[in-house]
From TrEMBL:
UniProt protein name: Copper-binding protein
Keywords associated with the record: Signal
Signal peptide (UniProt feature, chain positions): 1-24
Length: 151
């Protein structure tokens, strides 16, 4: 599994969330992430990351983040309504609307070198597992679901 990366992650990054996890796991000095800033069409501000909401988990396309502005493409892949709320230093609450099954929305946030809480504010979802911490600045976030869970 030590295959070298031979493609760029910009345009395909959103579709290859799992690849992002694998690559981020290498933890090496990887400035190439910033190569994704090439604008492509109507690309929103900042770097892109995908967030998948399911019943009842939150999965991010990458485990490590460097400080900067991100547009999180949030998709509700579950059956219940979900939303993404980001809490952390530097900005007040930042959340999507509640998304019905299959819906998606973009959420832009500027992250500093801090730890942020990504969670679902709907009902009691946060307590039952829809919460994940994101430590910005190169450290791997202490996610509860480190395993690959199929694709
Ligand atoms: Cu939820």
């Amino acid at each position: 599994m030590s295959r070298k990366r031979v493609f760029r992650r910009d345009a395909v990054g959103a579709a290859l969330g799992i690849a992002g996890l694998v690559l981020a796991g290498c933890g090496g000095p990887d400035g190439a992430d910033d190569a994704a800033s090439q604008p492509a069409g109507d690309q929103p501000a900042g770097k892109r990351a995908t967030v998948t909401l399911t019943d009842f988990r939150i999965e991010l396309s990458q485990k490590t983040f460097t400080p900067g502005t991100y547009t999180f493409v949030v998709t509700n892949d579950g059956k219940a309504p979900h939303a993404l709320d980001i809490e952390g230093p530097g900005f007040d609450e930042n959340s999507t609307e509640t998304l019905d099954a299959g819906e998606s929305a973009n959420l832009t946030a500027t992250l500093g070198a801090e730890t942020y809480d990504f969670y679902c504010p709907v009902s009691n979802h946060r307590e039952i597992g829809m919460e994940t911490k994101v430590a910005v600045g190169g450290k791997e976030a202490p996610t509860t679901d480190g395993g690959t869970n199929g694709y």
